[in-house]
Amino acid sequence: MGTELKIYTDGGCSGNPGPGGWAYVITKSLQIITEKWGAEKNTTNNRMELSAVIAALEALPSLSPSPGKVTVYTDSQYVQKGITQWIRAWKQNNWLTSGKKPVKNQDLWQRLDTLSGGFSLAWVWVKGHAGDELNERCDQMTQEAIASIQ
Asked: pLDDT of 94-118, one tens digit each?
């Protein structure tokens, strides 16, 4: 059956576009088992939100050979709705939006789509800056990531 894991993610920029950072925290049984952040010099908020989730999912196989249910907590409705709702239509429409324009961040969406197929995932939106301890931890690490390249 595997182990139930929880992933908290965040991403952001100083300016949009501008220097950006992302972070994730992965927990098991209420204990943090790993956390990481990264930064890019010129990016967007949405790319950083996606990068956080991608990096966390890429880390999973080394943490738990067969994770059971994995719940991803994000304060980005773009990520949560994109992966649970919009992506089906984008793929059916050859990565075009309903307005017939190319989907922004298609490279990251395709990576996330491929990675998410390998796990039993639940996606939960949490309100940012509302006191969720691990969401706040990710936000703090994201700000540290941004500061590291400014």
From this structure: 999 989 999 999 999 999 999 999 8
129 is catalytic: yes
Alpha-carbon span 43 to 102, nearest angstrom: 18
Domains recognised in the chain with CATH numbers: 5-149 (3.30.420.10)
Element (H, E) at 12: strand 5-13
Active site residue 139: yes
Query: Nearest-CA neighbor of 68 among 24, 125, 6, 134?
Result: 6
Tell if the pTM clears 0.85, that is, is over it: yes
Q: Are strands 5-13 and 69-74 parallel, antiparallel or unpaired?
A: parallel
CA–CA gap between residue 90 and residue 81 (Å, rounded): 12
Catalytic member of 99, 129, 131, 133: 129
132 assigned to active site: no
Tell me if residue 10 is catalytic.
Answer: yes
Q: Considering 12, 20, 38, 139, which one is annotated as catalytic?
A: 139
Question: How many Cβ atoms sit within 10 Å of the Cβ of residue 112?
Answer: 20
Taking alpha carbons only, the member of 48, 6, 3 closest to residue 135 is 6
Q: Identify any residues that bridge with 105 across adjacent strands, giving them in sequence order.
A: none
